[in-house]
Specification:
CATH architecture of the largest domain: 3-Layer(aba) Sandwich
Shape: elongated
Bound molecules: cytidine-5'-triphosphate
CATH class of the largest domain: Alpha Beta
Number of helices: 14
Mean pLDDT: 93
Distance between the termini: 24 Å
Length: 402
Amino acid sequence: MLKGKKIILGVSGGIAAYKTVILARLLVKSGAEVQVIMTPNAKEFITPLTMSTITSKPVISDFFTANTGEWHSHVNLGLWADAMVVAPATASTIAKMAHGVADNMLITTYLSSKSPIFVAPAMDLDMMRHPTTVHNLELLKSYGNHVIEPTEGELASHLVGKGRMEEPENILKVLSDYFATTEDMAGRRVLITAGPTVENIDPVRFISNHSSGKMGYAIAEECANRGAEVTLVSGPVSLSTANERITVVPVTTAIEMHESVMARCEESDVVVLCAAVADYRAEQVCDKKMKRGSTNTLTIKLVENPDIAKAVGAKRHDGQILVGFALETDNEEEHARAKLEKKNLDMIVLNSLQDKGAGFGTDTNKVKILERNGAINAYECKSKKMVAKDIVDIVVNNYLKK
Ligand code: CTP
């Protein structure tokens, strides 16, 4: 599973670094290309020569090579990797990762990274259970990082408790399992709507909403990373994607989004309706800027936009999976289930504006996924990237594999 995968192995300064030598060896034996980055303190525990010999690549530790002035680009490294593993992750490195203290190559690369990140903590038991460390690890998880929990046993201090870095064989297994699922959407065609729609009133004013498109783009990335061919019909957002498996179809209005979706939904195996479509548009769009009138009120007549999800639901074909979204403020489950039925969907992702961290513009979301068969899957507040994984896991495991 790791053959050809590009892995950054970040090593920070803890005694467990000696086990990372074995991890590097196991990764290389599995066919991975491994680039080691060491913090200055890590070099006190194991030598760069050991790691560069095992991985057949010079270890990176400094921002540049002093005698040649060659700069090591953490940005390129972050883009290069299929995964980054920080093992051991000391309390200090975990804190720096959680708060963006970018004072060494490992942290700058972490902050530049687009790949999944795995963190294997190792420290003494009291440091491990200190509220600061507990909180920092929670923060890392909420940003979508995977924490490989340390195990219990005798520690370097000879105290016994939780804080031993997970064994290299088990870290390797976590990575192999992660990559094993990544092609489970191969050959599937996925159509996704994302972002807001913008309905003009005149050349200057419009009706729209606060949707950032982050959730839809995260789902598109997740599906593409798992092998799907994705078409992303996107309203105006400030996001972009470099993923070769994603074709972005930019649209502005609900009418344009409706047309683009109807032209493509027939050929799609999965349709995810994530856009915040304006329900109404101005009946008349003035071609000149509207002037302030003589009265102190103004009425703009609005007419209904097409319900894209309902239209897709009405012409769905056998085996096609339809996923909708609902953002509710009251009687959430009841309203979401009514939408699922009305629009003929298989599942609907409910976010409540009452939940902290959920909704527009945020990087996190707290959702429940309601299925047609009555099942309700409730999740903690997570990064939108991880929410996207939960949604796609349900699509794959409960529908595509059946
Ligand atoms: N939707 C759509 N086209 C519309 C309106 C909504 O495709 N014109 C989709 C959304 O992308 C979402 C689902 O329908 O997947 C529910 O959207 P929501 O705005 O919550 O539902 P509405 O039917 O518009 O209900 P209301 O605004 O009255 O709550």
